[in-house]
Amino acid sequence: AETGWIGWKGLASSSVLEPVALLYQKTGKQKYLDFAEHIVQLWNKPNKLTPTGIRLVEEALNETPLWEMSGAPKAYEMMSCFEGLCELYRITGNHDYLKASQQLIQSIIRDEIMLVGSGSLAEIWCNGKMRQNDPMYQGLETCVTVTWMKYLYQMLRLTGESKYADQLEISLYNALLASQTPNGEWWSYYTGLMGERVPSHLQFPDVVMSCCVANGPRAMLLSPSWALMTSADGIAVNLYAPMHGKLQSPDNQSFTLDMSTRYPVTGKVEATLSIPRKERFSIHLRIPGWSRNTVITINGRRYQQKAVPGTYATLERVWSDQDKIEISFDMTSYVVDAPSGVPDAAIQRGPVVLAFDSRLVPFRHGVDVPPMYRYSFMKNKDRSIDVTLVENPPVKEIWMTFQVPVTDEAGMRHELPMCDYASAGNSWKEGNLFRVWIPQPFDFRHLYINNLGWRI
């Protein structure tokens, strides 16, 4: 805990905790457990890098703001340390380790994670939730997105709480996908909420790599692990996507779950079981917190219990071969106000955040088309907004395009195209501008802001 660059106060070197704990789990060799516990003990001891130690467990339990913790507020490495603490809890059963991990992740959600499912400013925690609508210098490092998802997966495994899968889904469909180049060969170092997409620089020329390019695929490869999970009484379905899932029942039957869907383009999901013999067990379907009205049918018959947002709907029954589950999620879009209180707003449809893109709404110096001067999102009393999915979008590189109603200063209704955040700016070319948080009202002359002097 006293090695590495002085600015990180030993935080980066301490993040080796997780692989050390895993080595003990795999080998049973006491030296690895001793080393893991030694690392945690060092967090409370002064050293040449910090007069207090980094005090991760104590300050997490005390809900110290992340940017004020004794250790450096380096986002990626701090979460890596707590991933290791989760593994050490599995070994030792020390409840303080679990409680500290739970408290830290709640602090991150409360103070740092932005609308698209990531955080950080120049790689550190920064009270980012309150600052996310401002022009950001080096915002949303890809390594932070990846480690955030890995930390969420740890907490999902430990607690079984669906809120962590909700966060994983938002990160997957927004921050993570937005940071990957269309051909899948490269990643961004930073992925802001306005400006341009910029590929990561070549951080290590000898291996043709950067840290974010190395880490990005890890979150993609993590997705199958949390998409479908098993429990003592059955399985949990956390991700809705086209898939062929191979699973094990409580009676050790091998069976498959085949899912057909366009989700999150639409809210319709169809899943079919293939199982050798009948068996009673539970299928826990994640009901996202944003889906206020979810309809579930089993073999055409409606599931009678209420599907409560932010929980699992438990379908316990005797399952037979070719049983079919159909789900209809509520894909209503909502206008979200900026947490800072300034009159900026964004739009979220299901797990997907929308953005303006200069290929759909070009940058304008004048305001003659449409003819009025200022525009605002045309929201309903419950803050919903009636966006329309465009089935044949004009820009083929864009995954989802929507027509969004706005009103001008005379009260006249117009429609403007917006796209999913992951597609916004995905030509990765200079001049392809995008923006998530939109002033209310907004002026076309100031719709886009490019804050990319850093070019990294």
Number of strands: 22
Proportion of β residues? 15-25%
The residue fraction in helices comes out at: 25-40%
Reported for the largest beta sheet, the result is: 12 strands, antiparallel
Uncertain spans: none
Distance between termini?
A: 29 Å
What class, by secondary structure content?
alpha+beta
CATH class of the largest domain: Mainly Alpha
Overall residue-averaged pLDDT value:
94
Structure annotation, total helices? 10
Structurally, how many domains make up the residues?
3
Rg calc: 23 Å
Q: So, CATH architecture of the largest domain? A: Alpha/alpha barrel
Shape: globular
CATH topology of the largest domain: Glycosyltransferase
Oligomer: single chain
Explain what you see:
- The protein has ten helices and 22 strands.
- With 456 residues, it is of the alpha+beta class.
- It folds into three domains: 221 residues, Glycosyltransferase; 99 residues, Immunoglobulin-like (Sandwich), CATH 2.60.40.1180; 114 residues, no CATH class.
- The strands form three sheets. Strands 1, 12, 13, 14, 15, 16, 17, 18, 19, 20, 21 and 22 form a twelve-stranded antiparallel beta sheet that branches.
- Helix 2 runs parallel beside helix 5 and helix 8 packs antiparallel against helix 9.
- It is globular.
Layout of helices and strands:
Elements: H1 11-14, H2 17-27, H3 30-42, H4 56-61, H5 75-92, H6 95-111, H7 128-131, H8 142-159, H9 162-178, E1 194-195, H10 211-227, E2 228-231, E3 234-237, E4 243-248, E5 254-261, E6 268-274, E7 279-287, E8 295-298, E9 301-302, E10 311-319, E11 324-328, E12 333-337, E13 344-349, E14 352-357, E15 374-377, E16 384-385, E17 388-389, E18 401-408, E19 413-420, E20 434-435, E21 438-439, E22 442-443
Parallel strand pairs: 3-7
Antiparallel strand pairs: 1-20, 2-3, 4-5, 5-6, 6-11, 7-10, 8-9, 8-11, 12-13, 12-16, 13-14, 13-21, 14-19, 14-20, 15-18, 15-22, 17-18, 18-19
Helix pairs in contact: 2-3, 2-5, 5-6, 5-8, 8-9, 8-10
